[in-house]
Amino acid sequence: MGVQLHRGAIAEVTIDFPPVNAVPAAGWHDLAGCLRAAGDDPGTRVVVLSAEGRGFCAGVDIKEMQRSPGHEALLAANRGCAAAFAAVYDCPVPVIAAVNGFCLGGGVGLAGNADLVIAADDATFGLPEVDRGALGAATHLARLVPHQLMRTMVYTCRPVTAAELHRFGTVLEVVPPAGLREAARRVAAEIAAKDPVVIRRAKESLNGIDPVDVKRSYRFEQGFTFELNLNGAGDRARQRFVDGG
Predict the structure, then answer these.
(1) pLDDT tens-digit profile of 16-47?
(2) A Pfam family in this protein (predicted)?
(3) What is the DSSP string of the chain?
(4) Domain chopping of the chain, boundaries
(5) Do the strands 124-126 and 102-104 form a parallel or antiparallel pair, or are they unpaired?
């Protein structure tokens, strides 16, 4: 349980926080550390980011926040998410997100910063942040869906399916859940067969021409989450979620 790193030319970083992969604050930092370790290994050519269980990631562990006094858990989770998302983006080699089941909140932050996404046919992507009294990861959702759909998803908290993202071209393949890891590793092997020096420079060059600074943009969004907590709206929304409302 936790975050596991399996090294190799095709490294795999796996999220495993039963029952729904709601990642605790420390888990986000562990995830960032594993991604950095994989990328720093000169033998790594590609990283596959995957998850155990019935969903890729349900975002932050809101129950952890609500049982922790003050704002320390919230601050730790926000810092951890920023670190994990940045570790995907800054990884010196391509990162393939293999998404199964639900991909919510912080899961969208991970998938949106990945270089490419392979998804199971049961995968859905969404930002329930407004219903949780928070804001964030619209930066990353905007890399997966058109702009006005992104706005609609933020305001309504509606999810989209992997099939819809495949039509947009932001999910490369949609496969049966049983074949997800195999499909991700097949694409990873295609990339791993290239000259690793060229691939690392390609990753660096592509990041350099991005029109949006994803790290600055995400931290800007997080500022509004802090504002919502100062005025009490964030805490009220999280408590409704914990209470099942």
Answers:
(1) 999 999 999 999 999 999 999 999 999 999 99
(2) ECH_1
(3) -EEEEE-SSEEEEEEE-TTTTEE-HHHHHHHHHHHHHHHH-TT--EEEEEE-SS-SB-EE-HHHHHHSSTTHHHHHHHHHHHHHHHHHHH-SS-EEEEE-SEEETHHHHHHHHSSEEEEETT-EEE--GGGGT----HHHHTTTS-HHHHHHHHHH---EEHHHHHHHTSS-EEE-GGGHHHHHHHHHHHHHTS-HHHHHHHHHHHHHT-SS-HHHHHHHHHHHHHHHHHTTHHHHHHHHHHTT-
(4) 2-179+196-242
(5) parallel
Tell me which residue of 234, 240, 237 sits closest to 74, measured CA to CA: 234
Is-contact 25 73, C-beta < 8 A?
yes
Q: Are 46 and 94 in contact (CB under 8 A)?
A: yes
Order of strands, sheet of 2-6, starting from the edge strand that comes earlier in the sequence:
2-6, 10-16, 46-51, 95-99, 116-120, 173-175
**What number is the average pLDDT over the span 141-147?**
98
**CB atoms inside a 10 Å sphere around CB 71:** 15
Residue located via tokens 């919502």:
228
Mean pLDDT of the chain: 96
User: Which top CATH class is 2-179+196-242?
Assistant: alpha beta
Of 14, 96, 120, nearest in space to 47 by CA:
96
